[in-house]
Amino acid sequence: MYILKIQGTQKIPDYIQIRDENFTLIAYFKISNPKTALSRCNLLERQDEILRIAKDLEYGKIRKLEL
User: Fold this and answer.
1) SS3 36
2) Backbone angles phi, psi at 35, to 5 degrees
3) Taking Cα atoms as reference points, which of 45, 38, 50 lies closest to residue 5?
4) pLDDT of 50-67, one tens digit each?
């Protein structure tokens, strides 16, 4: 899986994308509200780890997730 951080604007918040090995979108959520999106893709138990990685990630950079 891969994680990508997208920078928002003044009216649009920052978002996180999680994609699979084929780069298909798995989850798309605001950093401030990840619970629903992560529960849909069975990653809720990894929420703290994903958010820690997302907060340190630069905007527009893709990072491989080893979950």
Assistant:
1) helix
2) -55, -50
3) 50
4) 889 988 899 999 999 887
Q: How far apart are CA 24 and CA 32, in angstroms?
A: 23
Output the CA angle 15-55-4, nearest 5 degrees: 45
Spatial strand order of the sheet with 2-6 comes to 25-30, 15-19, 2-6, 62-64
Return d(Cα 2, Cα 64) in angstroms, integer.
Answer: 4
pLDDT, average across residues 38-50: 89
> Residue 13 burial by CB count (10 A; 0-12/13-18/19+): exposed, middle or buried?
middle
- Residue 52, both tokens: 């820690």
